[in-house]
Structures are given as structure tokens and as C-alpha cells.
Amino acid sequence: MTANDDNLRRRASLELLRAEASDELAVLIHERLRGGEDPWDFMEDLPSVDELVVLTLRADNIAENGGVRPNKARNYRVLRQIALDYPALTRAVWRILGDEEPHRRWDASVRLDAS
What we know:
This protein is an all-alpha fold. Helix content is 67%, strand content 0%. The protein contains seven helices and no strands. Helix 5 (72-85) runs antiparallel to helix 6 (90-98). The chain starts with a helix and ends in a 10-residue tail after the last helix. The model is unreliable at 102-115 (pLDDT under 50). This is Tryptophan synthase subunit alpha. It comes from Microbacterium phycohabitans.
């Protein structure tokens, strides 16, 4: 199977992408709960299932480009293309485009304080 075949398979299955993202989100929530965090403190900071799908598709695009992180213009084009390929994800794409650093907002491994 070529990379192009894999892209076609993934494009054809938004439901599968959403199921995978839902599972990943459940794991994130479970880990934070096991770490003793109060869900009232972190649930708003987590991405929605559709946002997680968009971020996963964006990460796939970065990997296909040799791991080179996109500049602002390329990031916009990549996210816009995701919205064109998956119209159901358009709202999530525009929410992400409205965030300054969407890939960092919910990442538990990134410290937000300056200490």
C-alpha cells in the first residue's frame, strides 16, 4: 500500500478518525484523573474530538513533509485543505485557526507557567 492509498483510506473514514480521537481523548482524561486533577480544572482545556482529528491530520501532514513544522502560511493552507477534504471538520478547523498555538493549548506535557 502506498502513502497515497493510505491517504485515500483515511479520507474515506472520518468516522474511524473520530473513533480513534475519542479513544485518545478518553485516555487523556483518564490519565489526568489518575494524576489527581480535578476535571473542573482541565476539561475546558482539552480539545474536542473533531479538533483532535484535525490536529492528528495536521500531524500526519507534518510527518509526510519530513517532520518539518509548517510556518504560519503553510499551517493555514494545511488546515484549510483539511476543511476542504473533510467538510464536517470545518468548524473545528476554524476554531483551531483562531487559536494562537492550538497544538500547545491542551498538551499536558507543556508547562504554561514561567516557573
